[in-house]
Design brief:
Radius of gyration: 17 Å
Structural class: alpha/beta
Order of helices and strands: HHEHEHEEH
Number of domains: 1
Distance between the termini: 31 Å
Strand content: 5-15%
CATH class: Alpha Beta
Shape: globular
Number of helices: 5
Amino acid sequence: MNPSHPGAAATSKWPKVLPELTAEQKRISDDFMKHWHEVLPRRFGLIEKFNHGYPVQHTPSVFRTTLEIGAGLAEHLAYERLTAEQEANYAAVEIRPDMVKTIRQRFPRIQARLGDCQQRLDFPDGYFDRVLAIHVLEHPPNLPATVEEMHRLC
C-alpha cells in the first residue's frame, strides 16, 4: 500500500519485531549460524561461487577500502585478490562474537569487527570505497537503517 495515497495507513513494516530469545535460544541460534556458514560453501558451491565471484568481477579497478557487512566466517575473502594495502583496509563486520573470533584467526591481516550493520558503525562518513553485503540483506530486521548506514559509509 502506498503511504502517500489518501486513506493509506501511515504504519511501516520497519523495523520488524523479532521475538525475544532466552540466553539458551541465543546460544543455539549462534551455534547453528556458525555451523551453517561452515556447511554452506560445501553444500551449495555453485551458488556460493556466483554470489562471491560476481562482486569480485565487478570491483572497481582502483579501490583502497572495503566494508563487508554480515561477514559470517569471512568466506568471501577466499575469492578476493587484494593487495597488502587493500587487505589492511578491509573491514569485516559481524554481529556474532564467536564468528568475529574465527575471522581474526583465519584472516589476521584484515580488520574483523564486532558490530551491527543496522546501527552506526565506528567509521567516518564516506570512508569506504566499496561495501559488500553477501547473503545479508534478507536478514536485518531494520533493512532501511542498514541501507542508510551503508550509504553514509560509502
